Amino acid sequence: MIQKLLLASTLVLGWQHGLFTCAQTCPPASNVDILIIGAGMSGASAAEVLAAKQGTVSSAYTWAWVEAYGTAGGRMRDTVFGSQNTLIEEGASWIQGGAGNPVYEMAVGQIDFYVQDYDNIDTYNNGVEIDIDTTFEAFDTAYICMQRYAEDAFVNNQTEELLQGESIRERLAICGWLNPPTELIDRMVEWYTIDYESALTAESSSLFGAFPQYTYIFYDDVDYFVHDQAGGFNQIVDNMISGIPTQNRPYFNVRVDNIDTTSEALGALVSMTLINRNGADTTCTPIRARKVISTVSIGVLEEAGDTWLTPSFPSDKRDAMNRVYEMALYYKFFFEFTEASWESTFGGTGGPNANFEFLEIANAFGTNCHHWQNLDTPDNVFVPGSRIMFCTMTTEALETVIIQPNLNSDAIRDLIFTPLQGIFPDLIVQNFYYTDWKNDPYTFGSKEMWLTPGLWSDYETFKAPITYSNSNENAVFISGSASCGNFFGYVHGAWHAGNLQANLVLADMGYATSWSLICDYIIGTRDENEWEWETGGGGGGGGGGRDGGGGGGGGGGQSSRNNHAKEHLQKGQDEQAALEAKLLKLKEDIARRQQEAEELEAAASKSTGNKRKGDSDGGGQKRMKGDD
Question: Which of 522, 486, 501, 520 is nearest to 626 (CA)?
Answer without folding.
Answer: 486
